[in-house]
Amino acid sequence: MAIIGIDLGTTNSLAAVWKDGKSQLIPNASGEFLTPSAVSIDEDGTILVGQSAKDRLISHSDSSACCFKRFMGTDKVFHLGEHSLHAEDLSAMVLRKLREDAESFLGEPVTEAVVSVPAYFNESQRAATKRAGYLAGLKVDRLVNEPSAAAVSGHMGREDCDQVTLVFDLGGGTLDVSLVERFDNVVSVTAVSGDNKLGGSDFDYAIAKGFCDDCNLSFDLLSPSEKSALLHQAENCKIALTTKSFVMMVVQMNEIQSSLMINNEWLIRKCASLFQRIITPVRSVLRDSQISLDEINELVMVGGSSHMPSIRQYISHTLKLTPTDESRPDTAVALGVGICAGMKERVPELRQLVLTDVCPFTLGVGIFNRAAPEVDIMSPIIERNSILPSSKEDFYVTVADNQTLLNFKIYQGENPYCKDNINLGEISIPVPSAPKGEQGAKIRFTYDINGLLEIEVVNQNNDTARILLKGSDMTDEEAQIRLKELESLKLHPKDQEIPRSLIARAERLYAMTLGQTRETIGQNLNWYQMQLSTQEAVKIAKATKRMKLFLDNIEGFISDGLFSDEYRDESGD
User: In Å, what is the CA distance from 261 to each residue of 211, 233, 243, 312, 535?
Assistant: First the structure.
């Protein structure tokens, strides 16, 4: 049975599958690739999903819903007639429709999918997405960050595989920005940032509000159906402005008869606050990755809202970069997640492709705050933008005399105080009674790309406590299989076969040589070990290739009798 990839979007959703040696989009029952992420319940209880549901947003606004992806993982309730539903219930209906269309297209049952999510989705939002898949009859144990999917899509078929790419993904409801490095067969996401409350629908609202302001109308006093109609017209004008210089926005409903000529300059003026928010995640990604604009080779813009000329011009002007013509704003994520589905299916064509991602949020523990004992301080262990999978540890000591228990509360978030972050669980371990600071424990976090978090605590007597925080749909058996795979993470990369071989080779050559050449070999060896300590796939791949070339050259000089004490340092440092 095929595994499909699904781009579950705020405005539209798509499905793809790896078939006949490539990622292919799956058409819906209407023959279209884009399925509106809208749900409506008819008077007789029939559930409508897609274009038919979108068409009812105006005429049957009290029994229809859209943009519910923004509320994944929250308690918000959508009332569709007599039915009360959460965002994950509505998303499950969209996923079920995509699954059924895929089954019709492929001619076989579909029970498993890889689903894309905004890079900045937190653990609650990701868990809700997996639950939606379960409700739709799909096993979803792999989520892929949307810009990562777009990056792997752009990588396929490319020959220039040593590139640094900025992926700007502005969809209907969310903004993701990622810095991606590509080298040989490795696609590595270096840093991510985003805004889960910023997307094309916000521009629709700003246009509708601006129209009301200029036409002496009060948006807030409009009825739900009038607001839906106005927002629909605003969306149509926004789309029209992608190809036209001016658009006449005309609204005729009930007692409202208004029209207004608008252009992109008007749109930019009315959406000024949104444009200011757009650049914030870009700055964050550059800061976290420590990569300058001069080092970026290409700008890739994806997401339906990236069609807007005003957005493209603003980003291009701000970053002094021209978006690549190869961008496929509407389909790049879906095609990428189709590739990820093929990777999960282990198809032969993709076995050499490696996609590494990052942890979009910080994971840590709460520690005692002496200044305000009732408010714990967040102590990061795995920081945001750490390459996944990741395994890191820290050591903590007792804070009171005769303390006999160390209790660690686990948090996710970027705020300095634990109360402002998300609590994921807790773990405790006993310690011998002693003066404060004399007893402690080492805590290790091991986190994988599928959302499995293992926490292991070891005290100074080598007593061990362990908990496993796993996705709600992951069985204990699956979790144990993943844990065995993660054991290798606890080894330093220098202990793996190829790096270990290069290190031994360098040590041998160091022992054989003298003078400046010996010093240069030592410098390169230290540099290589520093690259290994980053645990970043692209850095390690590049460093390994350079180190091998350096050692080949050294041995070549020795064997040819051309040994020189002036051999150049290849580390670049």
Answer: 10, 13, 15, 22, 55
Residue 508: DSSP 8-state:
H
Count of residues making up the chain: 573
Report pLDDT digits (tens) over 221-278.
888 888 888 998 999 999 999 889 999 998 887 777 889 999 999 999 999 999 999 9
In degrees rounded to 5, what are phi and psi of residue 221? -90, -5
Q: Which residues contact 250 (CB under 8 A, 6 or more apart)?
A: 233, 258, 259
Encoding tokens for residue 180? 């991606």
280 Cβ neighbours under 8 A, 6+ residues apart:
193, 195
Report d(CA 499, CA 522) in Å as an integer. Answer: 15
Lookup: tokens for 13: 């959703």
- Residue appearing with tokens 């290409």: 298
Tally the C-alpha atoms within 13 A of residue 509's C-alpha that lie toward its C-beta. 29
What residues pair up with 114 in beta bridges, in sequence order? 5, 142
- What residues form DSSP beta bridges with 407? 428
| Cross-strand partners of 332 | none
pLDDT, one tens digit per residue, over 382-395 is 998 888 888 889 99
